[in-house]
Write a sequence for this structure.
């Protein structure tokens, strides 16, 4: 199956509405995940504000994890060693532990697990990985119908994405993706899609934070013409942030390629930005004659790590 079919499949994931239970009694939420599975937690942390949300992308967990914590392990394969280690620690601490996985050891270990379909790249299963926490946290499920329609329209007309990929690939530019609240972490997601799908280095940051560091380099960098600057915009972008985008562009003499969210609801705009990044990175891979599905070096890394004698 060509990878584009996995991208198109995102709209069908909008019908997956199984949920993680969010008990009123929990005082904080911790989500564990790596790579394409971990992005679900990063996105959720930014848009959910009713209770504190912490993330772990390592073998350890925060010291505060206890019986008042809802701990959610997210691993598409169910065999991610960092997530398994963190989940086991949370169980020992007495946390309320849930999981989102297609099976594996995580599915066997965690009783309260949402089991999602197998057969995809983890990064292509973002709807399956994210929807259970969105639904469980109380986001309006009726918005998923609109989201499905928005994604369907994007699947039918992909010229914008091909054009942006061509602008990047023709001059071998390095993509720089700038996000805006409440979708700052979508910039990170798109950056990782360039890494895994297109096999190129990319960079991300977000407004207004970047105005306190990146802006200095944007004015004076001696290789500025080697970068392709994108900024994510939505109807949720505040007037203050919009003003910062314009002033930064004028001061630093940079033309930002705006990537605009589509739809009315927060959910639709979130997924539309994800979808656009997926398509752009896919078409850039095709321009480079690279298989966007191939991440074999990650598997080789895991093999090499398992062969390392840590006692030496």
């Amino acid at each position: 199956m060509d990878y584009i079919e996995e991208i198109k499949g995102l709209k069908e994931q909008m019908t997956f509405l199984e949920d993680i239970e969010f008990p009123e009694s929990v005082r904080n939420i911790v989500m564990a995940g790596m790579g394409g599975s971990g992005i679900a937690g990063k996105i959720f942390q930014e848009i959910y504000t009713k209770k504190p949300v912490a993330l772990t992308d390592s073998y350890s967990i925060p010291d505060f994890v206890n019986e008042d914590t809802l701990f959610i392990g997210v691993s598409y394969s169910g065999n991610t060693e960092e997530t398994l280690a963190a989940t086991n620690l949370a169980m020992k601490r007495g946390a309320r532990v849930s999981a989102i996985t297609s099976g594996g050891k995580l599915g066997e270990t965690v009783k309260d697990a949402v089991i999602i379909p197998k057969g995809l790249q983890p990064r292509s299963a973002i709807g399956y990985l994210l929807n259970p926490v969105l639904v469980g946290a109380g986001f309006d499920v009726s918005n998923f119908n609109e989201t499905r329609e928005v994604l369907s329209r994007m699947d039918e007309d992909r010229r914008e994405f091909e054009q942006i990929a061509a602008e990047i690939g023709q001059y071998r530019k390095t993509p720089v993706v700038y996000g805006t609240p409440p979708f700052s972490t979508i910039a990170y997601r798109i950056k990782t899609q360039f890494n895994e799908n297109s096999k190129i280095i990319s960079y991300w940051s977000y407004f207004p934070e970047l105005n306190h560091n990146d802006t200095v380099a944007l004015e004076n960098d001696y290789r500025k013409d080697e970068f392709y600057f994108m900024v994510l915009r939505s109807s949720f972008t505040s007037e203050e942030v919009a003003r910062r985008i314009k002033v930064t562009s004028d001061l630093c003499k940079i033309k930002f390629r705006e990537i605009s969210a589509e739809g009315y609801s927060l959910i639709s705009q979130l997924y539309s930005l994800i979808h656009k990044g997926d398509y752009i990175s896919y078409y850039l891979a095709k321009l480079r004659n690279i298989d966007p599905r191939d991440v074999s070096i990650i598997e080789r890394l895991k093999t090499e790590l398992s062969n390392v004698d840590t006692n030496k």
User: Anything to note?
Assistant: The chain has 13 helices and nine strands.
